[in-house]
Amino acid sequence: MKEKEKYIMSILGEDGVGKHTIVNDLFEGRLSINSSHLGIDIIEYSLKNEKNGKIIDIEFRIISGQERNKGITKSIYQDVDCFIIIYDVCIKESFECIKIWIDNIEKNSNLKDYLVCIIGNKISINRVVSIEEGKKFAENNNCLFYENDDKKNFKIIIKDIIPKLKKKKKDIILEKNDDIECRCNLCENCKIL
């Protein structure tokens, strides 16, 4: 059996920006999502690494846009490897709220090696937030930046995020183990690399 990797990705953003729609695109429209009463929907997704045949399991946690102001926020940020903040390029307010989401991530995440990605969604409609604004904001906040055109780009985005996430985790491990020179591939430190 092939070795598996697992990542938790939390999808954040204001209500109506297309969080469920973007994940549904991974399932080619066949996903039936029953929203929970807690403001969190959990969806499992697997993809195969074309290079090494490993299965990559992703747990998507889709967070209701209203959750950024509620008391349960601490728990929704725990153990997340990648935070994906989605905004609607047609609604300026959804873009302006990204900073609130980033602040909540910084305050509440228990991990230090997470990635934050910003995705401008619905770019095929009349936009009010330019691509330059999105890129500049992402750059100034040390985030990855993508745009999605509602035509199944999300799978491409996820495939681009995975190696960046792996590298970030590897860099953190190397940082923690700066004094270690061993490359035996047998000890605990080398196995991680």
What does this structure look like?
The chain has seven helices and six strands; from the N terminus they run E-H-E-E-H-E-H-H-E-H-E-H-H. With 193 residues, it is an alpha/beta fold. It has a single domain, classed as Rossmann fold (3-Layer(aba) Sandwich). It has a six-stranded mixed sheet, sandwiched between helices. The longest helix is centred in the last third of the chain and has 23 residues, at 154-176. The radius of gyration is 17 Å and the shape is globular. It starts with a strand and ends with a helix.
Characterize the largest beta sheet: strand count, sense, and whether it forms a barrel.
6 strands, mixed
Indicate the proportion of strand residues.
15-25%
The CATH class designation is Alpha Beta
Q: Order of strands in the sheet with the most strands? A: 2-3-1-4-5-6
Give the number of domains: 1
Concise description?
By secondary structure, the protein is α/β, with parallel strands linked by helices. The protein has helices spanning 19-24, 73-76, 92-96, 98-108, 131-140, 154-176, 188-192; strands at residues 4-12, 40-48, 55-63, 82-88, 115-121, 144-148. The chain has seven helices and six strands.
Describe the SSE topology.
Blueprint: E1 4-12, H1 19-24, E2 40-48, E3 55-63, H2 73-76, E4 82-88, H3 92-96, H4 98-108, E5 115-121, H5 131-140, E6 144-148, H6 154-176, H7 188-192
Parallel strand pairs: 1-3, 1-4, 4-5, 5-6
Antiparallel strand pairs: 2-3
